[in-house]
Amino acid sequence: MFSYKNILLVGSKEEFTLEKMYFRAFKKIGLKVTLYHSDNSVKNIIGKFFEKYLSSIYYLFVRKKFVNFFFKNRKKYDLVIIFKGLFLNKETIKKLKEKNIKIVNIFPDNPLNTQVKNISNKNLVNCIEDYDLFCVWSQKIIKKIRKLKPKSHLYYLPFGYDGFIHRKVPPKKKYINTINFIGSYDPARLDFLKKIRDNDLIIAGNNWRDHIKNEGNYIFGKKLCSIISSSLISINLLRDQNKSSHNMRTFEVPAMGGLLLTKRSKEQKKFFPENKASIMYANKKEFLKKINFILKNKNKMSKIRELSYKLSKKHSYTRRAINILKRLND
Questions:
Q1: Rounded to whole angstroms, how far apart are CA atoms 36 and 105?
Q2: Cα first-last separation, the chain
Q3: Mean pLDDT over residues 280-303, rounded?
Q4: More exposed terminus of the chain, fewer Cβ within 10 Å: N or C?
């Protein structure tokens, strides 16, 4: 079916990462796939220091380690998929392509945001046109890249859900009257969530410990599915770079049978039409208004949950993986 039989993914092997989700997706398709662990996505204090203040040295070390693995490995890959790849440079990509290998980059942040070193850098931007396919989740960002790098091979690749871990499960009594937010801390998100009564709210994600009562840094697997499948509302607070677009929770919540309450955006409306497959808000006032509406109309929400769950089936990472391979074959 596909001309690419042996695929190398380059990123993080941490269980919750996007690369691990794509690893499972490519395996489900029936292809040989290897996941090379280039770097931790969640770094310790030393790793954060080197990446922030000595990034050129840090990425040189990561790059040399990868090159050593790739060229001493006896396996022959016909497709290499890089996740972010901040450590790569033009010379390394050129060496890979000399092996008659297709090189794809799946970039889950904003590649043009070079001010924040762990998001992007100038070296990454300089390499965009060298990839056979550079995949970005935001149509708005793609338009900006196209103006800056007109020779680049860009592909709109939305986020999705992992069919192996994001599943609809029978509701648990302990969660059926709750509202949840699963995501990392930032001040703007805290400002929204403080408006909801503590006894109704479940919060989980990175760096919440010092700010508000929470369930822990990481909720994954069965517990995540139980909370989202059972809760009255699953809140999605889009960050600035996602405002016109979507994020991972956009697809994960419906796939787990949750009721998605999210910031209004054009892309999300296309995926999950407002008031039919999702509930949306524009500002804090409307956010609270929508929560009160949902709580007073619990029975009406079942149809929205059902449609969003049905629509989510088109957005698995297995489907995304197949679409990448089809695009490369065009």
A1: 14
A2: 13
A3: 94
A4: C
Q: Is the pTM of this model over 0.85?
A: yes
Q: Are 234 and 260 in contact (CB under 8 A)?
A: yes
Longest distance between any two alpha carbons in the chain, whole Å: 63
- CA dist 124 and 131 (Å) reads 11
Residue 168 phi, psi (nearest 5): -80, 125
DSSP alpha helices (H): ranges in the chain? 18-29, 45-53, 55-72, 90-97, 122-127, 139-148, 187-193, 221-230, 249-255, 266-271, 284-296, 301-312, 317-329
Q: What is the 3-state secondary structure of 190-254?
A: HHHHCCCCHHHEEEECCCCCCCCCCCCCCCCHHHHHHHHHHCCEEEECCCHHHCCCCCCHHHHHH
Please report which residue ranges of 98-220 form alpha helices under DSSP H: 122-127, 139-148, 187-193
Half-sphere exposure of 30 (CA within 13 A, CB side): 3
3-state DSSP assignment of residue 68: helix
What is the structure's pLDDT at 161? 98
